[in-house]
Design a protein that fits this description.
It is a single chain. This protein is α+β, with helices and mostly antiparallel strands. It is 17% helix and 31% strand. The protein has a five-stranded antiparallel beta sheet with strand order 4-3-2-1-5. It is elongated and about 90 Å long.
Length: 117
Amino acid sequence: MLSHKQGPITVRSFASVRGPAYTESMEETPPANRIRMGQTVYLVVSRVRVREAVVRRCDGGLYTVQFTNTHGAIRVRGDRLYPTREAAQEHTRKALPLPPRLDETFGYWHNVPRWMA
């Protein structure tokens, strides 16, 4: 146990206690997918559409993004932003096919393949 008389705890003092592997793990490496200000990102809206936006500000894990087509801005968490449109498309909900329905006016089915009618 270190007392106040021994001085502040530093990385060097931990290295002497825990070994060199501990100090190597403490070195920070920036993540490869880090989102920066001014970067173009893609946002999934309502799990259906993908919109292009530009990051204007990052504060406490929330990003302020400005849409490129309407110039409106919103604040979202970082897990809703994707670096490419293809990555965002993977997280959208696929459109379900419409159920067949009978047209009462003319008496035939809509949205049904010809071989089923």
